[in-house]
Amino acid sequence: MTLAGLDRSERRVVMFGGKGGVGKTTSSAATALHYALSGRRTLIMTSDYTPSLSDIFEAQIGPRERAVPGVDNLFAIEIAPDEVMRRWKEKFGPEVYEAASALVDLPYDEIVDYVAMAPGIQEEFMLDYILERVREGRYDLVVWDTAPAGDTLRLLDLPRRFIEHLRTAPRVYVELRDAFSLSRAPLTELIKSWTELAEDVTRFFTDPSNVGFILVTIPEALGVYQTRRVRRSLAEHGIDVSHLVVNHVVLDAECDFLRQRRDMQEPYIRMLEAEYGATIGLTQIPLLPYEIKGVDRLREVERRLFGDG
Ligand SMILES: Nc1ncnc2c1ncn2[C@@H]1O[C@H](COP(=O)(O)OP(=O)(O)OP(=O)(O)O)[C@@H](O)[C@H]1O
Ligand SMILES: [Mg+2]
User: Fold this and answer.
1) Does residue 121 contact residue 165 with C-beta atoms inside 8 Å?
2) Per-residue exposure over 26-51, b if at least 16 CB sit within 10 Å of its own CB, e if not
3) Counting beta carbons within 10 angstroms of the beta carbon of residue 102, is it exposed (0 to 12), middle (13 to 18) or buried (19 or more)?
4) The CATH number of domain 3-306 is 3.40.50.300
5) Could you tell me the distance, in angstroms and rounded to a whole number, from the CA of residue 298 to the centre of ligand 2?
6) Which ligand is nearest to the CA of 216?
7) Distance 115 CA to ligand 1 centre (A)
């Protein structure tokens, strides 16, 4: 079973998640390449600290959307969390300050920095950013290489955690406490409109006709446990995993070292197949002898993922 089923869906966003280092960026890049090659205008974005897309595409990508050299229809952007934070402040800072300064006498930075620390703000901003790209219609598809698993999940209960943060954190709260009890306080209004925004975003991302979630894992105990855990949490938040990619699979074991690794992997592959094979389908990527850099190498992963060669 391959990811080819994705080709037939009308989804506008494909997200890749999984624990650190398992091949999320590699799989995302190969998938984005696949769609670009098939003529769909595709944006790949990563929210990693490390500029991994630049490495993989062997081109300077950076925090502005830009065309990937040598591949028609493919665009990329790397937005590290500090850049996300900077943009969040740029977009919402004045609004936050205006609402809060009517109530408390604190410097601009203190208020804005405080609110910007709210849990999930960065993920929320990313989701909002993606949704904006989808709604403005410049791309047929957005492929999102997410941060390692746990972080992605934080966004799912954002509205509740966000409000909790504003209510319970000590510093600004002491002065805001009374203001919160006034129903028409500007900050309360602001929080209400953000909560609606967050709910709009959550609605979009939990609708499987909009978003496909692909979990990447490796055939080892940690990979199996993490997959179970992440899939359960996603299900609790109303998100279905549409595919499972099992990476680093040893195929041709021609020496003792590789035979041992393959023997180690086999029971885990069987476990993953037994657990998910019938419902979500598994796609394997073999462990390759070289690093996956550049379009030619990515094409090899793409062929494995989509089975067209
Ligand atoms: N099947 C494979 N065969 C050989 N090398 C691979 C394979 N898959 C990934 N790699 C290599 O493993 C490293 C990690 O892969 P990748 O960056 O895709 O993981 P990641 O899940 O995005 O990691 P992070 O959580 O740090 O973002 C890269 O150097 C990549 O080239
Ligand atoms: Mg990565």
Assistant:
1) no
2) bbbbbbbbbbbbeeeebbbbbbbeee
3) exposed
4) yes
5) 14
6) 1
7) 35
Ligand 1 lined by 22 (C-beta under 6 Å): yes
Nearest CA to ligand 1 atom 4: 288
Q: How far is the CA of 292 from the centre of ligand 1 (A)?
A: 8
User: What's the rounded Cα separation, in Å, for the pair 152 and 175?
Assistant: 32
The preferred substitution site among 26, 31, 143 for testing ligand 1, maximizing ligand atoms within 8 Å of CB, is 26
CA 97–ligand 2 middle distance (angstroms):
35
Question: Residue whose CA is closest, atom 8 of ligand 1?
Answer: 23
For ligand 1, whether the C-beta of 292 sits within 6 Å is: yes
Q: How many CB atoms lie within 10 A of CB 279?
A: 9
285 lines ligand 1 (CB under 6 A): yes
Task: Render each residue's pLDDT in the chain as its tens digit; 309 residues.
Answer: 788 777 777 889 999 988 889 999 999 999 999 999 999 999 999 877 776 899 999 999 988 999 999 999 999 999 877 888 888 888 888 887 887 777 677 889 988 887 777 766 777 777 888 888 899 999 999 999 987 655 556 655 655 565 565 555 444 544 554 554 544 456 666 667 767 777 787 788 888 899 999 999 999 999 999 999 888 888 887 788 999 999 999 998 899 999 999 999 999 999 999 999 998 989 999 999 999 999 999 999 999 999 864
DSSP state of 153: H
